[in-house]
Structure formats: C-alpha cells, structure tokens
Write a structure and sequence with these properties.
single chain, 221 residues, mainly alpha, Arc Repressor Mutant, subunit A, three-stranded antiparallel β-sheet, 10 helices, 3 strands, 5% strand, elongated, disordered N terminus, disordered C terminus, DNA-binding, Myb_TF_plants, nucleus
Length: 221
DNA sequence: AATCGGGGCAACCGCACGCTT
DNA sequence: TAAGCGTGCGGTTGCCCCGAT
C-alpha cells in the first residue's frame, strides 16, 4: 500500500505565491503557531497543500530569515561543511542561522560548484579532478582561445602590469586573483610554467577572493 | 526593438524516516 | 508488527530576469 499524497491535488493552487497568500499564511502562523501543517491551509483559508505552506514559510516568510548575498566567510564555511557532510543541506544550513537549506543548496549549485571546478576540484569529492596535483584550471578568453591560470600568471605583459608580484615564487591565490581582476587584455605569449600549490590550499587561504573569478573577460568551463 | 540563451532562484516532487495506532 | 500519517530532506524543474546579439 503506497503512501497517501500529502493533500488532495484537485482544486489546490500551485506555483508562485501571491502577496495575499503570503499575508494569510504569515498572519495565521504568527497568531496560532504551527501544530499540523496539513491543517494550516484549511485554517488559514488558503487553497494550498500543507507541504507547500511549510516550504513557503521555511524558505521565505520566516521572520528570522537572513536576506542578501552570501559572504566570503559563509562560502568558505559551506565548502568546509560540504567536505565533511556531503549534500546534507539541512545539516549544513543548521550552522547558518537565518539561512535555509534550499538557499544554500541553490548557492552551491549555481556558484560554488563552478568555482570549485575552476580550481580543479571535484565539487562532490573535494579532491582534484586530475590525479596529479598540478591541475591547471582552464579559462576561456574573450577571443575564444583557452588558457590556464598558469599561463595568465606567467604572461610577460601581465607581469609588467603587476610588478608588485614576485615571479620567483609560487603564486598565492591572492596573486592569481589580483592578476585576474586586472586582466583586461588578451594573452599574447606564454612563458615557462610552474607547479601550482595543491588547489585545496587556495580555498583554505584566508585572503581568498572569489570575486577574482568574476572578471568579464574570463569564463569557466 | 525583438529575440534568444543562460543563470539564478522559488517551488514542486518523491522518497525516507520517525511516530502513532 | 505492520500500516498510516506527518514531516523533513534532497533532487529536479520551471519560470523570470537580464545581458548579448
């Protein structure tokens, strides 16, 4: 015997919530609290199923929700928690008061995953995608060519424009980020390459700037 | 100005789990 | 012990917005 659906589907509204529905749900919950989600829509006068009401409340209407973009510290923490917990979004969200599991999951899928791939890390395992440590993140340039962060870092022209960066050391993520932020021209030549530090150290770097990857001239694979 | 495509986010779906009967 | 029920969770979908063409 299969499970009963959580509600009768017939006659119930679906899709985006209206302001009036939000108002009804919020007023009801603030006045009466939540005893049984199945009863909430009936008592609140809503043509929604209880499950939909619960989701709307948790993800959008709760007064303690924190709005706005994720900070770099939050992103770093999400990555660390994901490495430990995997896709247990509710457990991860529990560490972020005011954030929802849905919000964190969406942020992971739309932003952090891409950035990890750029760093040569598998978002599922947090291990390098390649077997070797010298994984080169691949960048696509405006002119359609592909290159790597190594190439950018070792480009003579960029070196000239970033003379505050030593070329005799392994670049830090700050170095790469700085150079990528100022990258507004196409590469003309490649020079010697070097071994990158293990990518995980980039993420752990306290000065790591994700914004470095928003350079309009670059896109991620 | 119109169209297209991609990104981001809200919401839905189905399953799992724990509690009750 | 098994069935029913309510809720939570994670994956997926669909829609809207915005930038590019």
């Amino acid at each position: 015997m299969g499970r009963q659906p959580c509600c009768e589907k017939n006659g119930l509204r679906r899709g985006p919530w209206t302001i009036d529905e939000d108002h009804k749900l919020m007023t009801f919950i603030l006045n009466n609290g939540i005893q049984c989600w199945r009863l909430v829509p009936k008592l609140a006068g809503l043509m929604r199923c209880g499950k939909s009401c619960r989701l709307r409340w948790i993800n959008y209407l709760r007064p303690d929700l924190k709005r706005g973009a994720f900070t770099e510290a939050e992103e770093d923490m999400i990555i660390q928690l994901h490495a430990r917990l995997g896709n247990r979004w509710s457990k991860i969200a529990a560490q972020f008061p005011g954030r929802t599991d849905n919000e964190i999951k969406n942020h992971w899928n739309t932003r952090i995953k891409k950035k990890m791939k750029f760093l040569g890390l598998d978002p599922r395992t947090h291990h390098p995608i390649e077997q070797h440590h010298n994984v080169e993140p691949i960048l696509k340039l405006e002119n359609g060519e592909s290159t790597s962060s190594h190439t950018i870092f070792n480009n003579d022209k960029i070196k000239e424009e970033n003379n505050n960066i030593s070329i005799d050391k392994t670049p830090t993520i700050e170095d790469i980020g700085y150079m990528m932020m100022s990258h507004d021209h196409q590469l003309e030549s490649c020079t010697t390459s070097f071994e990158l530090e293990f990518p995980q150290t980039w993420i752990d770097s306290p000065g790591f700037q994700w914004d470095a990857f928003n350079d309009p001239g670059l896109s991620f694979h």
